[in-house]
Amino acid sequence: MFLFIWLFKVPIPLYDGKTVDTLEGADPSSLANKVAKVAGSVNPGDSAVPASLGLAAGPTVLETVKEFAKENGSSNVEKQEQSGLSDMLKGQLQQLINSHPVMLFMKGSPDEPRCGFSRKVVDILKKENVKFGSFDILLDIEVRDGLKKYSNWPTFPQLYCKGELLGGCDIVITMHESGELKEVFRDHGIQLVESENAKVTDAGSGKGGITESTGLSTTLSSRLESLVNSSPVVLFMKGKPNEPKCGFSHKVVEILRQEKVDFEFFDILSDEEVRQGLKVYSNWSSYPQLYIKGELIGGSDIVLEMQKSGELRKVLAEKGIVQKETIEDRLKKLISSSPVMLFMKGAPDAPRCGFSSKVVNALRQEGVSFGSFDILTDEEVRQGLKVFSNWPTFPQLYYKDELIGGCDIVLELKKNGELKSALTE
To answer: GO CC annotations (predicted)?
Structure first.
């Protein structure tokens, strides 16, 4: 018997050359049940496994796969699952995972989370009134990298319940909002504790319009929430993007520009109320602070680390933040829009300078087809192309993305009988 698992279409095992069952899509819970049915561990009439366990994907399905491997005398799955980990590290990781019934591997500590996703999971666990242990993966690179392989889960935070991986931030949020997280804790015998966190009262119901959880006025809380959500990407910084007033703010601005992300900013030096209030609102004591779709990502160190690992680009993509087109991107696209491309003043049938007219005539006399762009219609392209090509005048002729030259060079090539061959190689 063989088992094949693909992301979008899953043939559930081939037995004697026949496909027993198939699953399309990426529903881990359904996958776990279909695999389990073939294994004989779930009867056709039995109810499905909890979706919360299916959401974890890795543990549920892998355990079933391991059973298949064991029954067929193979341990390849298990070997591949934790390849490259020493027995000592595996033991250490398992010990950490089992150190608390509910265990969170996060960036920072519950009182001082160092990324927005870790902070969100901490907040959810507090709302669920669950006592949990935590481990700051920023303090131990061996644990950090090892746990990614051990759990087959590439990002943090990672939440475990009774030794089983539930998932990361998005999964925990989904389970919390659907009520499944509470069910999982109950099914696993996780005892609830009385909440030590004050609840947020409805707007205006606290004394003097003060929210009991933060001590901020409801007016200020509302304003901060509006600012945080004023754009898909918002940076609270010292100064302005073109005139940052601190090196950390400057660094985050540079990172966002490198990632080609459009963002709004707020200069916290211009408003002391916002400056002090946001520290309380976000539970983050320093600046800059970067928010994506209303969620705190973190400060300079976190943003830099996420960029280096590629996690920032992944988060932006998951949140639907598309890269903006830079002038360089646009120029490259224009230049490559035709094998022979002429940037000129006016149009081929109505040139607006003698040099452009001469190049058009030369190309037509040689029978060369070409595309064109009127640089008089777009000042950004006109000025940008001078820098991009390091050529200060127009027209400019390109062949297969390479600059041939201006009017004088084109006429010289034609005179020498080399123009057509230069544009058809």
So the answer is: cytosol; nucleus
Cα 277 to Cα 372: distance, rounded to the nearest angstrom = 55
Containing 9, the helix (H) or strand (E) segment is strand 9-15
Q: What are phi and psi of 5, to 5 degrees?
A: -125, 120
Residues of the chain within CATH 3.40.30.10 domain(s) are: 83-187, 231-318, 327-422
Give me the CATH code for the 231-318 domain, please: 3.40.30.10
pTM strictly above 0.85:
no
Q: Which residues of 311-329 are buried (b: 16+ CB within 10 A; e: fewer)?
A: bbbebbeeeebeeeeeeee
> Within 10 Å of residue 6's Cβ, how many Cβ atoms?
10
Of 60, 188, 167, give the one whose Cα is nearest residue 124: 167
The residue type of 365 is Q
Supply the pLDDT for residue 82. Answer: 52
Collapsing DSSP states into helix, strand and coil, what is residue 164?
strand
Residues 89, 334: Cα–Cα separation, whole Å: 53
What span, in angstroms and rounded, lies between the C-alpha atoms of 379 and 230? 31
Q: How far apart are CA 405 and CA 74, in angstroms?
A: 66
For the domain covering 327-422, report its CATH number. 3.40.30.10
Where residue 260 falls (left for φ over 0; alpha for ψ -120 to 50; beta otherwise) is: left
Report whether CATH 3.40.30.10 matches the domain 83-187: yes
Higher pLDDT, 99 or 406: 406
Distance in angstroms (rounded) separating the CA atoms of residues 340 and 320: 36
Left if phi > 0, otherwise alpha if psi is -120 to 50, otherwise beta: which for 203? beta
